[in-house]
Amino acid sequence: MPLPDIDRRTFVVGGTAAALALGHVTLVPRPAAAAPNEFKEVIKTLLGREPKEGKVTLKLPPIAENGNTVPLTVGVDSPMTANDHVSAIHILAEGNPAPQVCTFRLNPNTGKAEATIRIRLAKSQIVTAVAQMADGSAYIAGAEVKITVGGCGG
């Protein structure tokens, strides 16, 4: 007996409904943004300590017309020697569904503790950069960006 002719959308919807009905899949609503306490926990989990202000320079436009491509440059004042260098730079956005945007791993051979990237932001918010140093210390800086068109479904 031939199988019925169905389109891909009908197949996916039917398969998802069957999986839900059989209990193989559970849909869990996800918060639209990290709560302030959750955001602090993300930083604490990354570092294991409270970061200090200083050494980190974060450049973002004060207003971005499109949240899909927001230019960001981060730099850390470091000689980048074997004993004194940046080991990681974390970019965090509290208002995004997943606050950890990216992490740059560095070593003394990197030469300069600086990176430029375009990030996606769900809404107007403060973007935070956290630098982990080789000696275990950490530094933090933040910059506010106003978004006119959201990039993460916002």
Summarize the structure.
The protein is of the alpha+beta class. It is 18% helix and 35% strand.
Secondary structure layout:
Layout: H1 8-22, H2 36-47, E1 52-53, E2 56-59, E3 63-64, E4 70-76, E5 86-93, E6 100-105, E7 114-119, E8 125-133, E9 138-147
Parallel strand pairs: 1-9, 3-9
Antiparallel strand pairs: 2-4, 4-7, 5-6, 5-8, 8-9
Features:
single chain; 154 residues; alpha+beta; Immunoglobulin-like
Q: How many E-type strands?
A: 9
Main pleated sheet: 6 strands, mixed
- Give the total of domains: 1
What share of the residues does DSSP label as strand, in percent?
A: 35-45%
Helix and strand sequence: HHEEEEEEEEE
- What's the level 1 CATH class? Mainly Beta
CATH topology: Immunoglobulin-like
Q: In which range does the helix fraction lie?
A: 10-25%
User: What is the approximate shape?
Assistant: elongated
Task: Give the low-confidence spans.
Answer: 28-32
Radius of gyration based on Cα positions: 21 Å
What is the mean pLDDT? 83
Based on helices, strands and strand pairing, what is the structural class?
Answer: alpha+beta
Q: Supply the number of helical segments.
A: 2
Corresponding CATH superfamily: SoxY domain
